[in-house]
Design a protein that fits this description.
mainly alpha, 2 domains, 20 helices, about 50% helix
Length: about 500
């Protein structure tokens, strides 16, 4: 592992804390800050989780988010003042064609029930990596009248249709109204069904981040993280019972009734890991640390994450999980032994593990044992993700972890070659814009390009130009579909910016 702590997914790094760059707590207490992130040393010793930094004279992120939320509320009020929203019908339609929506969709007050049905049908006809609820149960609830307590929350129904509309030029004019309706009914969803509210935040975050509305998307991603912890989803099936004993263990703020069956329990387990993985993948893309930081050998002051790794919904549906199967320190044990109480190599489990490996390789290893553990876990998962098309996002993240871990090693070039070899399956599909693959591509492939640029410039790899073309083609296809990738796309192989030294 490289002795350098440079993050290859970032354009710069600093080796010392500049004057005036201490966290807000250390500034207020006039303490010497070491600048460590996500929690500096003094805050960690004081068991403070509100360690926060500001750039220059900018407002803190909390103040900025509060200001943005106020602006969003003002925009929402303007939409609501334009006219009251009509009633909604969820009955499916059998008609095969309807006139296209008006191009002036911001003036629409209602969407035909037939179009809502088609949008929902399209959503569930595609692979949806961010969907963790039981689909048939949700679709049944979406057809019930809203005065029924077991009906699907309007916020989630509109968020589902929003993502479908975003994939179809025919229905794209509905996007502003669907977004406004989803936002205006989020509080109701939180009161009625916190897990459904969690799913809504996840979908809205993915949509807004894809559209380049980063601050708004990060607000929803942050809300999803906070809600998952507030609901105690990190403690589902914990062997510790109610006493966690963690140094900064959060207190659940949302009262959750016991799940009615294993399907409902599985929704909570998979919901936690969806948020856990999504905030890490987008955090790597945007340079933002994840809020949910689990206890690790190198980070003992984190949150104890006891919830077991996620399973495919069919396992929960058939009730195959024994009630006595409990878990503790899931991420810690993954680093220590590579296993858990159950370990199905499904797409969500693989991407959650790969995301935490990418995150850990961006930091210098505390000792040889941690470096060896990272290497072993990457080597264990790469063949599994390469063999399963559903593991594309996880495979990209693992290759990124290899590039980061072996920054000054020829194995970084091997990782870039591996991405080029699999370029065909990395091209965007109908539903790929809203999942883990988009931020994984936008984070890792530009770094792979820089590796190949360096290899071409030094003559280390005769095939570097051909491999670079393959990766550039993937980025070119993604760029129109993703604001992130459009901005990060490497423009030309002759770029003078050779950030990675692989000559040794």
């Amino acid at each position: 592992m490289s002795s350098s702590s440079q993050n290859v997914f970032s354009v710069s790094s600093t080796s010392m804390l500049p004057r005036g760059k201490a966290c807000l707590n250390c500034k207020h207490r006039k303490m010497k800050c070491d600048g460590a992130q996500p929690v500096c040393g003094p805050c960690a010793r004081l068991e403070r989780r509100d360690c926060e930094y500001v750039q220059g004279q900018a407002q803190s992120s909390t103040h900025s988010l509060e200001k943005k939320v106020a602006n969003l509320r003002a925009r929402l009020k303007d939409l609501q003042d334009a006219g009251s929203e009509g009633s909604r019908s969820n009955a499916p339609s059998s008609r095969s064609s309807t006139p296209a929506p008006s191009p002036h969709a911001h003036g629409l007050q209602e969407i035909p029930a037939a179009d809502m049905g088609r949008l929902m049908d399209y959503f569930f006809s595609q692979d949806q990596p961010l969907w963790f609820l039981y689909a048939s149960r949700f679709r049944t609830a979406a057809m019930l009248p809203q005065d029924r307590p077991d009906s699907a929350p309007l916020a989630l129904v509109n968020a589902v249709c929003l993502l479908s509309a975003a994939c179809s030029p025919h229905y794209a004019p509905y996007e502003p109204l669907l977004l406004a309706r989803a936002l205006s009914s989020l509080n109701d969803a939180l009161q009625r069904a916190p897990v459904s509210a969690l799913q809504t935040h996840v979908l809205l975050a993915a949509y807004l981040l894809n559209r380049g509305r980063q601050l708004e998307g990060r607000v929803h991603l942050s809300n999803a993280s906070n809600l998952a912890i507030s609901c105690g989803l990190h403690n589902v099936r914990s062997s510790r019972g109610g006493s966690q004993g963690g140094p900064i263990e959060p207190v659940p703020l949302v009262t959750m009734s016991a799940p009615r069956d294993q399907i409902a329990e599985g929704e909570r387990i998979n919901g936690f890991w969806t948020v856990f993985a999504l905030e890490r993948v987008w955090g790597a893309a945007l340079g933002a640390p994840a809020r949910i930081q689990p206890v690790l050998p190198s980070f003992p002051q984190g949150i104890r994450v006891d919830v077991p790794w996620p399973l495919s919904m069919s396992h929960y549906e058939h009730g195959w999980i024994d009630r006595g199967m409990l878990s503790s320190d899931t991420v810690w044990n993954f680093f220590r032994t590579g296993t858990g109480i159950w370990d199905e190599p499904n797409a969500l489990s693989l991407v959650a593990k790969s995301a935490v490996l990418l995150e850990r390789t961006s930091c210098p290893a505390t000792d040889a044992a941690e470096a060896h553990a990272l290497d072993a876990r990457i080597a264990m998962l790469v063949p599994v993700t390469a063999a399963d098309p559903r593991g594309r996002a996880a495979h990209v993240l693992l290759r990124g972890a290899m590039i980061q871990l072996y920054t000054r090693d020829s194995r970084a070039l091997d990782a870039a070659r591996g991405l080029a070899a699999g370029a065909r399956i990395l091209r965007p599909g109908p539903g790929d814009a809203f999942g883990f693959l988009e931020p994984a591509i936008g984070t890792v492939l530009p770094a792979a390009c820089r590796v190949l640029i360096a290899a071409s410039a030094t003559g280390l790899d005769p095939s570097a130009d051909r491999n670079l073309d393959s990766i550039q083609d993937v980025l070119a296809e993604w760029a129109p579909r993703s604001s992130l990738i459009g901005k990060k796309r490497v423009a030309h192989r002759n770029s003078p910016e050779l950030l990675i030294d692989i000559s040794t």
